[in-house]
Design goal:
alpha/beta; four-stranded mixed beta sheet; Metallo-beta-lactamase, Chain A; seven-stranded mixed beta sheet; 2 domains; Arc Repressor Mutant, subunit A; 319 residues
């Protein structure tokens, strides 16, 4: 049953995804604020309304929504809420939460180019169309206003925005210094390590992001704040934050060094490495597993362990 604690109520809704339930949070402030908006399914919406009823609230009582990042399981129910509700988030959310045909074309062109660059054969290119299909659980809603590093969100004078890209380029966290509470989206989860999703370059940019490096930097960034515990996007709260961040960074380094050892055997493409890392999952979760593989290569490159040969498809080798 949903209940208030320190002016925050945790709501948990089901998703059809492997990650399981997703969390959203209500905050009592000058405006009743919902942080994240679940996924666009009837099951999620019914669960959400039932938990609001536990708090003697209805959807009409919510005055604004802040989204931690643009993934469907965090924004989908925006389409079910009143169109009068104000929506705030990082500006990089916009083209994902209100996608156009031009956006879908740009995304498909980017991943087609990446797939060929990574050494995938033509037979895998049709899977790019699944990117568009995944938006059926998302929303078609614009931001009312933008949030960026250090800003105080409207109606939440005790909270400040921390930009935490990596899992998504648009990801932010909300921090309340008086009691050290962080609402962290999918930056740090107690039970699993979030995936560093590969995304196309932001508008006006040419280079693709390096999400694994961003994710590592965002986790390290949290260590400079007096955080007591973290309300997470999925699962339970995180209380031993420093220890968990150190564990996550070590695990990622160890996985990357396993890849590095493979590269000492000889040059290999991204896709060849992906199949070795994820032999059971790469066909089913192609974009996800490629994102993870590229993340390890970006990391190895950043610490000077590997370099890439400048020809197609890209071959990596240990120095």
């Amino acid at each position: 049953m949903a209940e208030w604690k320190d002016g925050i109520a945790k709501l948990t809704m089901p998703t059809p995804f492997k990650v399981g339930d997703v969390n959203a949070y209500l905050i009592k402030g000058d405006r009743l604020t919902l942080v994240d908006a679940g996924i666009k399914t009837k099951a999620s919406w019914n669960s959400f309304k039932a938990q609001l009823a536990d708090l003697r609230l209805s959807t009409n009582d919510i005055e604004q929504v802040i989204i931690t990042h643009h993934h469907a399981d965090h924004v989908g129910m925006l389409d079910f809420l009143s169109d009068k509700i104000e929506v705030y988030g990082h500006p990089l959310n916009e083209r994902y939460i209100k996608p156009t045909e031009a956006f879908f074309q740009e995304q498909e062109n980017f991943f087609r180019e990446q797939f060929l660059d990574f050494g995938l054969t033509e037979e895998y290119l049709p899977s790019i169309s699944t990117l568009r299909q995944s938006f059926k659980y998302s929303c078609n809603t614009s931001l009312t206003g933008e949030l960026a590093e250090g800003m105080i969100p409207p109606g939440l004078r005790e909270w400040q925005v921390i930009e935490t890209p990596g899992h998504a380029q648009s990801q932010i966290a909300l921090f309340r210094e008086k009691d050290g509470i962080l609402i962290g989206g999918d930056l740090i989860l107690a039970h699993i390590s979030p995936n560093p999703f590969l995304e196309m370059p932001a508008l006006g940019e040419k280079e693709r992001p390096r999400p694994q490096l961003q994710h590592n930097d965002s986790m390290k960034k949290l260590l400079s704040y007096p955080i007591q515990f973290v309300y997470t996007g999925h699962g339970e709260e995180v209380f031993q934050l420093r220890e968990l961040i150190e564990k996550r960074l070590l695990h990622q380094h160890e996985r990357a060094m396993k890849v590095n050892n493979w590269l000492k055997e000889g040059q290999q493409t991204v896709f060849e490495l992906c199949k070795r890392l994820f032999p059971a999952a790469y066909k089913r979760e192609l974009v996800l597993t490629l994102s993870e593989t590229v993340g390890q290569l970006d990391y190895l490159s950043s610490i000077g362990e590997i370099s890439s040969k400048d020809h197609q498809p890209v071959l990596y080798h240990a120095r």
